[in-house]
């Protein structure tokens, strides 16, 4: 009986979502200003620095790419714990690439793919990719990383 109620609930939610979905008018993307492009370049440079350090297991360089206020929240121990958890599950990070920038009215949200590699005794090498999201903004006329996380 509980399973039946769950199915009815999910069907109702899906039906509601389909009924309320509508057409949306698309608008022309806004032209990037020089300031926006400079912020994008600075963000990309910071993220590349972070991801290079992550691949090399270099906590000092990774943390060095963060603004001062974030360093008190994410220190060497946090880096080591986060990296250990990811490598235990996914394997060793071997490469990364830029994926996209998400539209947001105030912040710059960039998404990168990070590729991991591990060995399996039965099938050999296994690759897996996860997303790395970085949210940036401008504070005191300086582009700054506000948050980051693996998805």
How would you describe this structure in keywords?
5 helices, 151 residues, alpha+beta
Secondary-structure element sequence? HHHHHEEEE
Low-confidence stretches: 4-26
Strand order across the largest sheet: 1-2-3-4
Largest sheet, described in full?
4 strands, antiparallel
User: What is the rounded distance between the termini?
Assistant: 35 Å
- Secondary structure class reads alpha+beta
Average pLDDT value?
81
Account of the 3D structure:
It is a single chain. The chain is an alpha+beta fold and 151 residues long. 44% of the residues lie in helices and 32% in strands. The protein has a four-stranded antiparallel β-sheet. About 15% of the residues have low confidence.
């Amino acid at each position: 009986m509980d399973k039946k109620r769950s199915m009815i609930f999910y069907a109702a939610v899906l039906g509601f979502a389909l009924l309320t979905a509508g057409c949306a008018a698309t608008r022309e993307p806004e032209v990037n200003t020089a300031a926006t492009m400079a912020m994008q370049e600075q963000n990309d440079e910071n993220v590349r620095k972070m991801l290079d350090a992550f691949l090399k297991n270099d906590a000092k360089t990774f943390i060095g790419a963060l603004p001062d206020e974030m360093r008190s929240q994410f220190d060497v121990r946090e880096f080591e714990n986060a990296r250990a958890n990811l490598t235990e599950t996914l394997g060793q990070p071997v490469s990364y690439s830029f994926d996209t920038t998400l539209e947001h009215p105030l912040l710059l949200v960039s998404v990168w793919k990070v590729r991991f590699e591990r060995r399996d005794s039965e099938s050999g090498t296994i690759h897996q990719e996860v997303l790395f999201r970085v949210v940036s903004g401008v504070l005191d006329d300086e582009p700054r990383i506000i948050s980051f996380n693996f998805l």
